[in-house]
Amino acid sequence: MKIGVFICHCGENISSTVDCPRVAEECGSYPGVEYSVDYKYMCSDPGQNLIKDAIREKNLDAIVVGSCSPHMHERTFRSAAVSAGINPFLVEIANLREHCSWVHDDIEASTRKATELVRMAIEKVKRDKPLTKINVPVTKRVLVIGGGIAGIQAALDVANAGYEVILVEKEPSIGGHMSQLSETFPTLDCSQCILTPRMVEVHQHPNIKLLTYSEVVKIEGFIGNFKATIKKKARHINEDLCSGCGLCITKCPTKKKAYNSFEQDLAFRPAVYIPFPQAVPNIPVIDETVCMYYKNGKCGMCVKVCDRQAIDFDQKDSMLVADIGAIIVATGYSLYTIDKKSPDSKYKGYGEYGYGKYRDVIDGLQFERIASASGPTAGEIRRPSDGKVPKKIAFIQCVGSRDESKGISYCSKICCMYTAKHAMLYRHKVHDGEAYIFYMDIRSGGKMYEEFVRRAIEEDKVKYIRGRVSKIYEENGKYIVKGEDTIAGMPVEIDADMVVLATAMIPQDNAAILARTIGIPYDKYGFFNESHPKLKPVESTTAGVFLAGACHSPKDIPESVAMASAAACKSIILLSADTLEREPVVAKVNEDLCAGCFYCQKVCPFGAVEVKDIKDINGIVYKEVAYINQGVCQGCGTCTATCLSKSIELAGFNNEEIFAEIAAL
Amino acid sequence: MMKYGYFPGCSQTSSAKEYDISLRKVIEKLGVSFDEINDWSCCGATSAHVTNHNLSTALAMRNIMLAGQQGMDNIVAPCAACYNRLIMSQHEIANHPLIKKETEEILSADFKKDIKVFNILELFLKTGINKITENRKHELTGLKAACYYGCLLVRPAEITKFDDAEQPSSMEKIVESTGAETVDWNMKVECCGAAHSISRREIVVDLSKKIIEDARSHGANVMVVACPMCHTNLDMRQRVMKRAYPDHREFPVLYLTELIGLALGMSEKELGIDLHYVDFRYEDKVEDKTLVN
User: Fold this and answer.
1) Which of A1, A192, A386, A408 is 20 to 30 A from B213, alpha carbon to alpha carbon?
2) Does the ipTM exceed 0.95?
3) DSSP-assigned states of every residue in A79-110
């Protein structure tokens, strides 16, 4: 075997602490090395040509490149090798930059280390086997989980590109949090006015199958070939028959039996309801926990008034299985609440703000509903306790967020902007009202965002106080807000009629469960993790699963929409090919050696290990062994390390190769 | 019979003598006995902990060390400041090897024994509030108590690991076992001004006035405290308060132990309530006089 060694200077990145010519020279005499050379920029065109020419002229069988991390240029050097006729998996990278020159300063020692790193790679490449990429077929259908603005945007983009979409939403209507908002920053245009046309478009799109009041319960398979099981919760109303006339809702005798969650519990709803007038689809849901029929078998008023016989008390949850090529997760967020939490919760709640016992101390989404024309007060700013118009409102930013002691260290990102908007809306509607905002810092990065905050301060006379609020308590119908003005260096006390808390955006309650169902990683809070923070921000680490919107981290509408379109685009790229090429670095089980302990199945983070029956000549199963689905395997090697009988081998990283590397050290 | 090591602290022997008197009488009735730490010293509060960190830690740990040497497994520290100094010092010793080493050198001792320090509320909760109900001579009907915790009893939460730092409720449970009502009010954990009582009296007067008026406006007719410093500010300083606020009406402030003592059938005089600056007679608070024997 003839091996070529190519040592890169990386400008001065490597050569300033590693004597590159000496490394090339010393490696040149190493057994098996036919040719060894150093060059200033091996990744440049002349550098790549140097490699290609050497392969052809010296008839090289394999090459080792001593350069930067394989994360950077492994692909470049493999392509160069392929064009000169070498299998890409007969190319090894010795990381002389991140693993050597950048972290050491002694030239002599780092030159020695660099030489050893290259020798290790030489020993490995001697044992490397040529591998070929794996081809898998692709199902041309995308599953979008979550019907908020991110899910809607992603679904529309994919559908408009001509691919089928299944959009799953757990609530009775799509629209998400954006449908609850009054106006949006920084333009103050009506949220529903810009959202509802999109919702209708989703409903009418021939390529979109909309499943509301449904949840994804199981995801199997792998990129291009997922199988999704979706639970359609019983609406108790036949969707095909219902005309959406709403008579059942108006006639339902349980008028105000349940809290209206769309109104953030500021209003009530009957047992049969649609969340809001522009709901899509415009088909009600019967809430079994409130409905009289389910309590005592009586009533049935809705059955009597429905002239299309659409009420179906016997309807049960149903399951639906679909083949899917790509998944876009857009499950959105929920809000931190200040109430008392269980002792084991990572969130702590706010005893100093009364643990939620004061009715006029509300959160941002509640204020959105109060300010919204379709809300419980028809858009008049009135406080929940007695319906009076508050003459003084204190807004408090960073409630829960940026406070390690309350359980969250991250910035909730959108609160500076929406609090400025709230204060502005309040000042527009209550002209003699006073708006105070307690803030830590104002973070208004974004197009026209800073200008928006300045407008709140300068035109709308919102009073910003830099400092935290230590306590809120009620006194004679007022809420005493005690805080600190850190600029004046004085304690402040405001007797507000109402307090609006900018509580932190947190993941949905069941985010971690969904992440495990799909098989995607999440952070300590439950936000889903991207594959690379800069270069792969919408890909999850599971191939074929993409992320959009606030399920990834706190985001405002434009960011969620942009991310959704990006995720849609990534899905479209995936679906545009008939088959998929996968890296052949996957694990394989030696079925003769496998003892069937299935420890590998327990440790595999991707669910790639399956049970395979080994049958005798009569077709009787005599042994169960592990089988690794090559489409799902990501080549992490966890199973290989776990396997007690050493019967799993990872292609490109087998024991022989690894031990040879170590022995060369 | 439950037995505890007892660390009285300086106040119990002087300005809060009645706290000590009533505590000893009450626990005797409840079947608890105290073993006072022999040769106890200052807990390291105020003057010590603003002057020298090592001094304040060493003083607190000296008392804990003595308790250990005298065979005690636990200590009750009825004064909130003593309680705070003792557990804070234990926390520092447990978490900072350097402080542990220095303090051990100062005291020529090693802190191996784990000695649990209880505050007064923990003492009654551990004894069982049902014991109070069982031994009660009469229900303290007519009393509407505002339970005042002050700053040190429940803070810092991650060290005291006791009750809720912002909305505590354990004292209410104890007070309700006497038959007295409790009121929901806003200033349970506000600052009374503490040691500013001496140097910046006007601060204490303003802060304590707010606390008293909040209790009154929420329907309380007595305040219950568990800290000698708080009691000094809230009771004794009402005289100065009257000068700053001429329309100030006196408001009685009792130690938790005095309230329990009343329920157990002891008289105001026995419990030392007559030593207070603001007079309190249970009889005055009761609408139905036949309840008082």
Assistant:
1) A386
2) no
3) HHHHHTT--GGGEEEEE-TTTTGGG---HHHH
